[in-house]
Amino acid sequence: MPVRVSPTDRIRRHIDDLFAEDRPLPEILEDVARLGAQLLMQAALEAEVTEFLGRERYARAALAEDARPGSRNGYREVTVKTTAGPVKLARPKLRGTTEAFASRLFGSHDSRTNALESLVIASFVRGLSVRDVEATLAEALGDQAAISKSTVSSVCQAIKDEYRAWAGRRLDEITLDYLFLDASFFRMHPGSPAEPVLAAWGITTEGKPAFIGLGPGTGESFDAWKDFLADLNERGLASPLLVISDGAPGLIGAIEQIYPKALRQRCLVHRSCKEITW
After folding, report:
1. Read out DSSP for 193-242?
2. Cα gap 74→3, rounded to integer Å
3. Domain boundary residue among 111, 131, 166?
4. What is the DSSP string of 116-128?
5. Residue 130 sits in which domain range?
6. Which of 41, 222, 251, 269 is the most exposed place for a label (fewest CB within 10 A)?
7. How does residue 275 score in pLDDT terms, banded at 50, 70 and 90?
8. Residues ≥6 apart with Cβ < 8 Å to 33
């Protein structure tokens, strides 16, 4: 891989490579979750350096109005302790600076934090609210160690942009034998009612798992599922051989309208759970 590729881009490529592996989907998703946390930590660290120098990577100091003396000079590997185990990051090295750079997230020795895990949770579960992320970090690290609004905003915006690009990607090259559809409910704010997140994943004709789509829904209604599936179809996802779902009438109706030629099967796990409840 070229040296000029940033550490964040390397992590993104690693995530893409995981979905191309011939492994069970649950194992892949566990690794993706771990790399997602690593990606956010790396992005936050690099955003701090960008703020410290006053310019982006490879930007010339003479062209940046608020630039400080100094420049990036490669990376050194550091390890951050988290509740999920050690995470390796590439910490930017600086030269020619008039003052030393000290990360407000990790400190001088990069040995502590569960704050970034809180940042991951706050970012995704609380809707990428800058105020919530700042409050989470202040609680975990103390007010003096909280990162600035500009750093939080840049990290959150990068995540938003990446999700929008992923959610809008073309699906023409994916051919599915099996498409699984389901919704999970999450509380986006303390005390608020749980809201659904619609998900689609499948198995390709080559037998490989594929994460197809993820998006918020107003409920598990016919209209919510129809809009979700219509978007997948418009982006090029052809009809699968078989669609597996629960027995929700709205979901079944949406499947029959958007993918009428696909066979449909009731999920055995949902069926078993319902029988046990009865």
Report:
1. PPEEEEEEEEEETTS-EEEEEEEE-SSSSHHHHHHHHHHHHHTT-PPPSE
2. 9
3. 166
4. HHHHHHHHHHTTS
5. 7-166
6. 269
7. very low
8. none
Predicted TM-score of the model (pTM): 0.57
Q: Are residues 87 and 216 in the same domain?
A: no
Does 171 reside within a domain? no
- List the structure tokens of 5: 């590729």
Asked if residue 230 is part of any domain, the answer here is: yes
Q: How many helices (H) and strands (E) does the chain have?
A: 8, 7
Does pLDDT of 93 surpass 70? yes
Distance between CA 268 and CA 278 in Å, rounded?
15
What number of residues does the chain have?
278
Q: Could you count the other beta carbons within 10 Å of the beta carbon of residue 28?
A: 19
Please check whether residue 22 is in contact with residue 121, taking contact to mean a CB–CB distance below 8 angstroms. no
Other CB atoms within a 10 A radius of the CB of residue 27 amount to 12
Closest CA to 182 of 244, 124, 238: 244
Q: What's the pLDDT band for 177 if we cut at 50, 70, 90?
A: very high
Say how far apart CA 9 and CA 260 lie, in whole Å: 39
Q: 185 with 161, same domain?
A: no
Amino acid in position 224: A
CA dihedral 154, 158, 161, 167 (to 10 degrees): -140
* DSSP for 16-60, written as a single string: HHHHTSSS-HHHHHHHHHHHHHHHHHHHHHHHHHHHHHTS-TT--
Q: Do residues 131 and 156 lie in contact, with contact meaning Cβ atoms separated by under 8 Å?
A: no
